[in-house]
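Field guide to reading this record: the first block holds the primary sequence, the second block holds the structure written as discrete tokens, and the final block holds curator observations. Each block starts with its own label. This record concerns Membrane protein, catalogued under organism Adhaeribacter aerolatus.

BLOCK 1 — SEQUENCE
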Amino acid sequence: MSVSTQRFTALDVFRGMTVCFMIIVNTPGNGATTFSPLLHARWHGFTPTDLVFPSFLFAVGNAMSFVMPRYQALTQGQVLGKIFKRTFIIFLLGYLMYWFPFVHWEEQRLVFNPIGTTRIFGVLQRIALAYGIAAVLIYFLNWKRALIISIFGLFLYWALLLLFGEPGAELTLHGNAVLKLDTWLIGSQHLYRGEGVPFDPEGLLSTLPAVANVTAGYAIGYFLQKKGNNFEALAKLLLIGCLLLAISYAWNLVFPINKKLWTSSFVTLTVGLDCILLGMLVYVIELLHKTNWTYFFKVFGRNPLFIYLLSEVGAILLNFFRVGDSSLYKAIYRSLFMLLGGYIGSFLFAITFMLCCWLVGYLLDKRKIYVRV
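BLOCK 2 — STRUCTURE
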């Protein structure tokens, strides 16, 4: 196996892991009986689940470091066309996913989902915007300047939250600038309500620091390509990760780690952890050449956006179709998994759902079908 192929293997595995765990944490059989590490932190704080989404953004940037050099043979118009097209399609898919299946049950009859209350921002939308902004910055300014601008953006975001949040409550659920901007821009009817009140954890303003997850992923990908697969490069990667962890914990004292606000300390923490995790994968896959275990995750990594979208649409449909007074989702959990116990049953439901998504990815991979946007 060539060096370049191995690098793509490590990237596919890293990206595949993020998709795999995104599906697991998003589809528990019963949210009330979910193991705490598989739940997001309620507000300030951090759990393993909080690492999943930023890791996907990091992987997006890592993949860009292999793709961007190919753009040198294209005109500026062609490059921007590719970037804007991909950004638009991913954003649109995210928007349509939240509107889907376009109807809902209300007193045993189907009622159309009004477009006026459809959630506008979300996971795919954040991926689209963070990718688009990072790609434009890197293309026009090179990755070093883009990374510097992203770091500046982390401090700018901190300042914006302090300046435009409610005094004394700028980092609370009800008084932050992210909520204020989203409410002013699109209205509370278009916001996520999973917190019990209108608030979107993927709001527009908090996309600013998320761009740094992508540019950092690009920088690390570029670093590995230039330095090669050797212990010196891995040592530096691990040192970068440890340094970022120290910065994040120090920053947490004045700007708390918070996934739902995507605070700057959250960015440095997640990028630091991703550097360490990626370093571990590079060591095992590329230096030790232990690859027998990697295919499972490569299946996810080769069609990441498609499999993630499939998992979300699948969960939506299982909750939409009815079995008596219950959704098909709940009926399957209660009849097959709840008998194993609340927490174990909920976890095994999520694992089973993830494996079903993996099977689709496996069939696509065997047929060499790779869905690209």
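BLOCK 3 — OBSERVATIONS
Residues 180 and 218 are 31 Å apart (CA to CA).
The chain has two domains: 1-39+290-373, 61-280.
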